[in-house]
Write a structure and sequence with these properties.
Elements (H helix, E strand, L loop, with lengths): L21 H8 L4 E5 L21 E5 L3 E10 L11 E8 L4 E6 L12 E10 L2 E8 L2
Antiparallel strand pairs: 1-2, 3-4, 3-6, 4-5, 6-7
């Protein structure tokens, strides 16, 4: 898929913000990527929640991360659900440099040019009402 085709039409739905994920979305509005980390075992937590999936600890703190990482896996989705029903998009797992593996979209890239292990960086797409969605693009 050419980066000038369907990915330009990628929707930017407003996220559901729960008390548990509010710090994540608040930082995204400011174009910053933050994740919860376990203070007991230092494990990064994705998807943001109030406990550590690695050790079960409830001792969690939010930390800003670089937003840099590499592609672990990706797939071209030709038709999604809901807001994504009318467009094709690249769904990817990205390993952040800080250790978390996040599910995200790769934008502004041709699928033919993507490779496992390729470096990416976070960008933010405005979702209106002061919200923003973190997505990833190829690092330069």
């Amino acid at each position: 898929m050419d980066k000038n085709d369907e990915t330009r039409k990628l929707p930017v739905p407003a996220p559901f913000i729960s008390p548990e994920t509010a710090p994540f979305w608040s930082a995204a509005k400011e174009r910053r990527l933050v994740l919860p980390f376990c203070t007991s075992c230092n494990h990064p937590i994705w998807y943001p929640k109030r406990f550590c999936g690695a050790c079960g600890s409830l001792d969690v703190e939010w930390r800003q991360v670089s937003g840099a990482g590499e592609i672990y896996s990706f797939s071209l989705v030709h038709r999604g659900e809901g807001d994504y029903r009318e467009c094709s998009f690249i769904l990817a797992l990205v390993d952040l440099d800080e250790g978390a593996r996040v599910l995200t979209n790769i934008v502004d890239a041709d699928t033919a040019d993507l490779k496992i292990g390729q470096r990416v960086r976070v960008i933010f797409h405005d979702a209106g009402d002061g919200a923003a969605l973190p997505r990833f693009t190829l690092a330069q």
